[in-house]
Amino acid sequence: MKNKTGVLLGRLMCNIMRSPDTIITVAITPIMLLLLFVYVFGGAIESGTDNYVNYLLPGILLMTIASGVAYTSLRLFTDVKSGLMARFITMPIKRSSVLWAHVLTSLVSNALTVMVVVLVALLMGFRSGAGILNWLAVAGILGLFTLALTWLAVIPGLKAGSMEGATAYSYPLIFLPFISSAFVPTETMPAVVRAFAENQPVTSIVNAIRALLYEGSVGNDIWIALAWCIGIMAIAYIFASKVFKHRLG
């Protein structure tokens, strides 16, 4: 059995490059939210910072990734329904290559979309004095977050009976940042909502990214963020592998 992950990754990336509207479509909603909250609601929101786009960007980046991984489910669903997936697993290649190609495609395409959103934020006044190591740490956290959500996306992509079912799971993920520290400090929330917001993964990830970009001292947030990302990824990987074996033998 040969590992053809690179070849399969190239196939998927070629499809995306031939139709870049995937990246553009994923970027539109986060960019619109960025514009809306900064220029419409920003003046009325007390975030404790003079530059609200700086405060907002980390949460918007997580929403961008949550939107993007829905296409992983869609691509998997399409390959399964068309019979292409079944064809691949009869070839002399490692079966894991098929799944990893989709996962790595998600990682690359989401990285491209995140860069588009960051460029728009720069035009809107986003600034950071973070050094190269801090930026690499931010990239690492976003990469782990992408992998965690992508492995979650694999499960409905393989199990769903319809295109809508394959992508519907992403909606709660997209809106989860609204109940976190992504848009406003959790201190402004009612007690019950605050308790949920402070103990869900988005808040710790957003806080860790903010600290790396603007404060320099991350404290425990980075370890909590890494624990969430790695934990979700490990559990999702195990379930996704079992679904893959059960669905396609």
TrEMBL record:
<feature type="domain" description="ABC transmembrane type-2">
    <location>
        <begin position="21"/>
        <end position="247"/>
    </location>
</feature>
<comment type="similarity">
    <text>Belongs to the ABC-2 integral membrane protein family.</text>
</comment>
<dbReference type="InterPro" id="IPR051784">
    <property type="entry name" value="Nod_factor_ABC_transporter"/>
</dbReference>
<feature type="transmembrane region" description="Helical">
    <location>
        <begin position="53"/>
        <end position="77"/>
    </location>
</feature>
<dbReference type="GO" id="GO:0043190">
    <property type="term" value="C:ATP-binding cassette (ABC) transporter complex"/>
</dbReference>
<dbReference type="InterPro" id="IPR047817">
    <property type="entry name" value="ABC2_TM_bact-type"/>
</dbReference>
<keyword id="KW-0813">Transport</keyword>
<dbReference type="InterPro" id="IPR013525">
    <property type="entry name" value="ABC2_TM"/>
</dbReference>
<feature type="transmembrane region" description="Helical">
    <location>
        <begin position="222"/>
        <end position="240"/>
    </location>
</feature>
<feature type="transmembrane region" description="Helical">
    <location>
        <begin position="21"/>
        <end position="41"/>
    </location>
</feature>
<keyword id="KW-0812">Transmembrane</keyword>
<feature type="transmembrane region" description="Helical">
    <location>
        <begin position="166"/>
        <end position="184"/>
    </location>
</feature>
<keyword id="KW-1133">Transmembrane helix</keyword>
<feature type="transmembrane region" description="Helical">
    <location>
        <begin position="98"/>
        <end position="126"/>
    </location>
</feature>
<protein>
    <recommendedName>
        <fullName>Transport permease protein</fullName>
    </recommendedName>
</protein>
<keyword id="KW-0472">Membrane</keyword>
<feature type="transmembrane region" description="Helical">
    <location>
        <begin position="132"/>
        <end position="154"/>
    </location>
</feature>
<dbReference type="GO" id="GO:0140359">
    <property type="term" value="F:ABC-type transporter activity"/>
</dbReference>
<dbReference type="InterPro" id="IPR000412">
    <property type="entry name" value="ABC_2_transport"/>
</dbReference>
<keyword id="KW-1003">Cell membrane</keyword>
<dbReference type="Pfam" id="PF01061">
    <property type="entry name" value="ABC2_membrane"/>
</dbReference>
